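Hi P.,

Sorry for the delay on this. The queue was packed all week, but I finally got your sequence through. Input first:
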Amino acid sequence: MRRTIALFVPFAIAALVALSPATAQAQDFKLTIKDHKFTPEELKVPANTRVIITVVNEDATAEEFESNILKVEKVIPGKSSGTVRIGPLKPGRYPFVGEFHEATAKGVVIAE
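Then the structure:
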């Protein structure tokens, strides 16, 4: 009986670690910059989940994805892409801007 339990415990621990939120794989989303605007302007993501946002800059000039509330700043050179990792987020709205073109490059991450 002890041997059976001794064999079972490592598998049980491995299963718990694999299912824990800390090791859960982040979900991927895409955000595009074109004509100094973000598309989509509202990016809906699941709450309480790590998220990876691939920001694709189709403009010839650089843009900075910035959000004070998300505590992230990422410069995306022209005609390239970059990755931003956020979360897990509580349900709510998290605004972001393109700092180099704040008048037009605005958006919000909505965690629900």
